[in-house]
Automatic annotation (TrEMBL), chain A:
Originating species: Streptomyces cyaneochromogenes
Family of this protein: Belongs to the GcvT family.
The protein's name: Sarcosine oxidase subunit alpha family protein
Limits of the Aminomethyltransferase C-terminal domain: 987-1073
Stretches for region Disordered: 108-160
Automatic annotation (TrEMBL), chain B:
Name used for this protein in its record: Sarcosine oxidase subunit gamma
Top-rank taxon: Bacteria
Cross-referenced Gene3D superfamilies: Heterotetrameric sarcosine oxidase, Probable tRNA modification gtpase trme, domain 1
Organism field: Streptomyces cyaneochromogenes
């Protein structure tokens, strides 16, 4: 959502504005002097540059001012705005892209690059050693054999019962479905989508490609990563064969949305995000900290480090009045002008206990002055043989399951890594009691971390790689060989293989913001570089993995952001980070040599292997965007979070190029799947679109009216009685109105008050006919056209006073007509002293129609002289009707004697009821829009938008009389001299009479010349625009636009209806009372 | 007009929803208060802010028309809302529209002004209480923080899917006036009542 700065109101959401096309295209001084070509150039030709473009905009939902904006058409950035009539600013500089890590060069890299901490958390030494192969262990709990005795942040006092694939299990509050399954010894959580291979829990977060499950109860929801589903009592879930099922019943939960504004939005409450928030918290700046987990801490929850500091900062944030911490909230989209969307999961974790009046999910529409992205990093996988067996897991994720949830993903682990970070995980897991049999490191010299592991009794196989795995529902063994060789294989028994291929900064949101990524040689991945929006990236999202640097960078980014907004940040206390082993550079490995017959999966969720990508490059594809579409790698609902960079690396190897030259595929919102229910929010059912009603609406409802939508208005369509169908009801309403009297609610017509000394001049320019000569007290029908001469709207104009007119518009076009008037006034004719104001709802209007309408009006308005001579057609009078102050207009849209009585809507219902009562002796009949349409069509009155489609001139409608020959110019006039508008074969509005008076022509039916269907293409002469059954004519009839129609009156044409050709006769559009005696009498 | 009042009591656009607004107010336990303020006099005034009429009208009403965009000026029972550089909405107590209209016309004399009674064009919904801001944030894209939209501010914007004129009342925490086109009032009231679900 762009933020467009209105020159008057300041920055507002783009949705408040209307686009008006290229600016500085003035209306020609003297259109009559232009050649057809010059006029056509003015009408139809506009620039279409790449880059800065001056445009007209209207603040339509605000101050209704037209103004000009210079917008860069390549970036959508609004470079300048200026008022209508002002010169375009000379030079306008686009925003410069700035570094996503502006002070990076200045920041002391206080620690070495490496994994996030290695010190085992305090208080875990008591972990009991695990017994081999018994399937029991951890705390010795009988129901959760893989539950660690002490570790984890789960609430062991709140056991929860859940069901997975029909088996009942126990877990704890604080578990995810994945961790609870692991604690129960369940690793396999599904089968793969194409190959049906067993797949296990692979991660501990949103990046999960495998464990995508279906929730069955309390409400069916497909394809949720089990690693993100918080466990609740009574949860029933099933594994999926890669694809879920949508619910067939409507979702009963409530979903809503809110708008939020802040000086600083921090995405991610890990170490960097918390440090940023701590720096900003007490500055007075408005800060939102959004994090997708139930509690702050991010990666620290997984490593169980610095948790006292996390608590300290959390308390500080809770106490700060201008800080809002949104937990369980995923920021999923980053749009223009720092507009970000997030979804908050508010009651999902409560299961059946969720309160009904609280929305289940809430979409946050956040407009932030500045953004700090502290979104962390995802561990990357490696493409080795049979790398998809249940029990293969990302190294840091295993650590998270143990420290955060107290769930053991296995008992005998082998670690396969290309970098230092997996050592910290291995050491920590070993201290938790897992048997880490070996660390397999592709690097020939793994350095100090390897020494530390060896010191802890773990065998380190340097320069080795995993070349294969064994197992079915669970991993049983891992085969290892020297890297790149097939000899010297060793096999390890293991139920867990921990993998680390390096780290990918979570750059999704940054990329969505328009930020550019660059390849980082040290990291072997893509990191944020620069962006034109006010965003910084901090922590491992920026590619920095060293904990001290992560914290410092977060604090600096938070401080810089609030400082830039005029607040004074403080230096927050950051935790002491213990000394780390000296790092050894990571090795960038993507494809691992191994068994040539075993699949090496790149995208687990889409079952895409290295061989699949090789087929893509073999077919000549050279871009990762193309290999993605060829193989579907990265297109599943995990959007390739663990596989995207891996796929790029594999493709680079296959093509023999460097990965930096390939880049990544484009990141698009949403970052994680968002349900349609959440996006729809409350804009469903009755609230999906505004319903406009008149002051008399309740009466229509009470009297059984069926309604028609006209724009957003609900208009009575017809009033069926005693089991009448529509045809019978409409025929009855038409007959009653033509024979005696009917009445309808005409309040929905648009009404615009046009006031000022130049009002007459203004209307003369807008309408095709002359308005300035209208006398006060009289009314004139008028037509408005676009400059191309095509009819745009019609209605009546009442002269209220010398300098005041009341213009009516069609119901659906009121806003467009007012916009149109304002555009001309403000941009072309600012010298005219005239103002236009909508008064549509200031009046309720009752149309009183039929030969007895004069009697009814007379009885209600004793002071009004209603005789034809006193109150002629196209006059208006002020009087009281039923004791209510009223303006009565004698106009007719039916061809009958008719009046429109206008009163305050506060008294509209009273007037309506009085008319109903006074008309009772004449059998007064309420009628709806359908009867109105029939009556007007019998008279050949067109409805703009039904009988016209923007390609029809007044002359085409047979209304040359409404086009002034006297006025020097009006909008559209020049176009009537164009060759195209004076062609004899233009489509004219004509009447059509089916030869069988009972045959009904559907609207839209084509018309052709021949009574036998020729081989297509058959020349089309026109089409039916309106079609009805007429009570007055005792037959069906239609209006149609027909080529040269007026010259065909009396001709027979054919209308293909279904498989029949219906013969019809072309007639004058005026089929009823052509002399107008009824209307004028 | 006298006999009119006898024969036809006035009905406001939200009269049929008054009970539901009152019920929501009651059950919210003070969190929000919703009520229609019906029949307020509303006059649209269009004139050249730099012309003679601006000053004359100001004197006649004893109220300076606000020149700062999106602000209001209050004097006695009158509130003048800036709607555009040459456009104001004057809001006064019910029944005062004729008097206001004629006072403005008289003051303007021969100056080209446009004065229109638009009292029935919009109705006014009072939204107040400690959760008023949260309630409106469900559908109003504007920043309603007291720093950005405190007393003295007004704005034409959108709420839900309809246009409104939003006015911050003159006391901090006194909530808002939501002026809405009468034909949209029923929709907006339904929308607001639904948005209030969590607070009642």
């Amino acid at each position: 959502m762009l933020l467009i700065p209105c020159p008057w109101c300041g920055p507002r959401d783009e949705a408040e504005f209307h686009y008006g096309g290229q600016a500085h295209v003035p209306y020609p001084q003297d259109p009559a002097s232009l050649s057809d070509q010059e006029w056509a150039r003015y009408l139809f030709f506009r620039d279409n540059p790449k880059g800065p473009f001056a445009e007209r905009w209207s603040h339509a939902a605000g101050c209704r001012r037209w103004f000009n904006a210079v917008r860069d058409t390549a970036t959508n950035e609004v470079l300048a705005v200026y008022r209508s009539g002002e010169e375009r600013p000379a030079t306008v500089e686009p925003r410069q892209a700035v570094s996503a890590r502006p002070a990076f060069e200045d920041e002391a890299l206080s620690g070495p690059i490496g994994g996030l901490g290695a010190e085992p958390p305090a208080g875990v030494e008591g972990a009991e050693p695990l017994q081999d192969g018994t399937g029991r262990g951890g705390g010795g709990e009988t129901t959760q054999p893989f539950r660690h005795a002490t570790r984890g942040r789960v609430d062991r006092d709140t056991p929860l019962t859940f069901t997975f694939d029909g088996t009942e299990y126990q877990g704890y509050r604080g578990d995810t479905l994945a961790s609870a399954l692991l604690a129960n010894g369940v690793v396999q959580a599904g089968t793969s989508i194409k190959l049906g291979r067993p797949r296990g829990i692979f991660s501990a977060g949103v990046e999960e490609p495998n464990a995508v499950i279906q929730i069955e109860e309390p409400f069916p929801e497909p394809m949720l990563p089990a690693t993100t589903v918080e466990l609740y009592d009574g949860l029933v879930a099933t594994s999926l064969p890669g694809q879920g099922r949508l619910a067939t019943a409507p979702d009963p939960a409530r979903y809503d949305a809110v708008h939020a504004h802040c000086d600083l939005l921090i995405v991610g409450a890990g170490p960097a995000g918390l440090a940023a928030a701590a720096a900003a918290a007490r500055s007075g700046a408005r800060v939102i900290l959004a994090d997708d987990q139930p509690e702050p801490g991010g990666s620290l929850l997984g490593t169980a480090e610095h948790l006292d500091w996390v608590r300290e900062v959390t308390e500080q944030l809770d106490a700060a009045p201008e800080v809002r911490v949104l937990s369980r909230t995923t920021v999923f989209g980053y749009y223009d002008d720092n507009h970000l969307l997030a979804v908050e999961r508010r009651t999902n974790h409560l299961g059946a206990q969720a309160p009904e009046n609280v929305s289940r999910e809430r979409v946050w529409r956040i407009r932030a002055r500045r953004v700090v992205l502290a979104t962390g990093a995802h561990e990357r996988s490696l493409a080795f043989a049979d790398n998809d067996r249940p029990g293969v897991m990302l190294a840091s994720s295993a650590r998270t399951h143990v420290n955060r949830h107290g769930a053991l993903p296995g008992r005998h682990a082998v670690v396969f890594t290309t970098n230092d970070s997996a050592y910290a995980a291995a050491l920590d897991l070993a201290s938790a009691g897992l048997a880490v049999t070996a660390i397999v490191d592709t690097r020939p010299e793994p350095g100090e971390w390897a020494e530390r592991a060896r010191a802890a009794g773990i065998e380190v196989l340097a320069g080795h790689a995993v070349t294969g795995t064994q197992g079915g529902a669970r991993l049983t063994a891992v085969t290892v060989a020297p890297y790149g060789e097939s000899s010297g294989q060793r096999e390890f028994a293991a139920d867990l293989l921990l993998v680390s291929g390096g780290w990918n900064p979570v750059a999704h949101l940054f990329s969505q913001s328009g930020g550019k990524l660059r390849h980082d040689q040290t990291l072997g991945s893509f990191v944020p570089d620069s962006c034109r929006q006010a965003v910084e990236v901090a922590g491992s999202a920026s590619g920095v993995l060293d904990p001290a640097t992560v914290l410092a960078q977060g604090a600096a980014a938070g401080a810089r952001a609030v400082e830039a907004e005029g607040y004074t940040p403080e230096a927050p206390r950051l935790p002491e980070v213990p000394a780390q082993p000296r790092p050894t550079a990571a090795m960038h490995v993507y494809v691992v040599p191994g068994d040539p017959d075993a699949p090496r999966f790149v995208d687990l969720q889409r079952d895409v292997t290295v061989d699949d990508l090789a087929r893509a490059t073999g077919a000549g594809l050279r871009s990762v965007e193309h290999t993605k579409r060829y193989t579907t790698a990265g297109t599943a609902n995990d959007q390739g979070k663990t596989s995207g960079v891996l796929a790029s690396g594999v493709v680079a190897e296959l093509l023999g190029v460097d990965i930096s030259a390939l880049g990544t595929t484009t990141f698009r919102p949403p970052y994680t799947p968002v349900s349609f229910a959440a996006l729809a929010g409350r804009d469903r059912g009755a609230l999906s679109d505004p319903v406009r009603t008149t002051a008399i609406h309740e009466w229509h409802v009470a009297h059984g009216a069926l309604f028609e939508n006209v724009g957003q208005w609900k208009r009575p369509w017809y009033y069926p009685q005693d089991g009448e169908d529509m045809e019978a009801a409409v025929l009855r309403e038409c007959r009653a109105t033509r024979e005696s009297v009917g009445f309808m609610d005409a309040s929905t017509l648009g009404k615009i008050d046009v006031q000022g000394p130049d009002a007459g001049v203004f209307l003369d320019r807008l309408y095709t006919n002359m308005m300035s000569t209208l006398k006060v007290g009289m009314i004139r029908y008028g037509v408005m056209c676009r400059p191309d001469g095509m009819v745009f709207d019609d209605g009546t104009v009442i002269r209220v006073a010398q300098d005041r007119f009341l213009v009516t518009t069609t119901t659906g076009n009121a806003a467009a007509v007012l916009d149109w008037m304002e555009e001309w006034l403000q941009t072309e004719w600012p010298e005219l002293k005239v103002h236009c104001t909508s008064v549509t709802e200031q009046w309720a209007t009752v149309a009183l129609v039929g030969p007895k309408s004069r009697e009814v009006l007379g009885s209600l308005a004793p002071q009004l002289a209603v005789a034809n001579d006193d109150f002629p057609f196209m006059a208006w009078r002020e009087t009281t009707v039923a004791g209510i102050e009223a303006r009565v207009c004698r106009i007719s849209f039916s061809g009958e004697l008719a009046y429109e009585i206008n009163v305050s809507p506060w008294q509209g219902l009273a007037l309506w009821e009085a008319v109903y009562e006074a008309g009772a002796p004449y059998g007064i009949t309420p009628y709806g829009t359908e009867t109105m349409h029939v009556l007007r069509a019998e008279k050949g009155y067109p409805i703009i938008g039904q009988d016209t489609d923007g390609t029809v001139t007044p002359q085409d409608l047979g209304m040359s009389w409404v086009v002034s020959k006297k006025k020097p110019d009006f909008i559209g006039k020049r176009s009537y001299a164009r060759a195209d508008t004076s062609r004899p074969d233009r489509k004219h509005l004509v009447g059509l009479l089916p030869e069988d008076p009972g045959t009904f022509l559907p609207e839209g039916t084509h018309l052709i010349a021949d009574g036998v269907l020729l081989t297509p293409p058959v020349p089309m002469l026109g089409h039916v625009t309106s079609s009805y059954r007429s009570a007055a004519l005792g037959r069906t009839f239609a209006l149609a636009l027909v080529k040269g129609g007026r010259d065909r009156i009396g001709e027979r044409l054919y209308a293909p209806v279904g498989d029949r050709l219906v013969p019809v006769t072309v007639a004058s559009p005026v089929l009823y009372d052509p002399e107008g005696a009824r209307r004028d009498g | 007009m006298a006999d009119t009042a006898l024969t036809a009591p006035l009905r406001s656009p939200l009269s049929h929803i008054a009970d539901r607004l009152a019920a929501a107010t009651r059950t919210s336990g003070g969190a929000i208060r919703l009520a229609e303020l019906p029949f307020l006099a509303q006059i649209s005034v269009r004139l050249d802010a730099k012309g003679a009429a601006a000053e004359a009208v100001g004197l006649a009403l004893d109220l300076q028309l606000p020149l700062q965009p999106n602000t209001v000026v209050r004097a006695g029972e009158l509130t003048a809302l800036w709607l555009g550089p040459d456009e104001w909405l004057l809001v006064g107590p019910p029944g005062s529209e004729r008097d206001l209209e004629s006072r403005i016309r008289e003051a303007a004399g021969d100056e080209p002004v446009s004065v229109i009674d638009v009292s029935a064009q919009r109705t006014t919904l009072l939204v107040t209480g400690p959760r008023a801001h949260d309630l409106l944030a469900h559908g109003c894209p504007l920043d309603l923080h007291p720093r950005a939209f405190g007393p003295g501010r007004c704005a034409q914007t959108t709420l839900g899917r309809t246009q409104i004129v939003l006015v911050a009342r003159d006391e901090p925490r006194a909530g808002f006036w939501v002026l809405v086109r009468s034909s949209f009032a029923g929709y907006l009231a339904d929308w607001v009542l639904d948005a209030a679900t969590e607070y009642v």
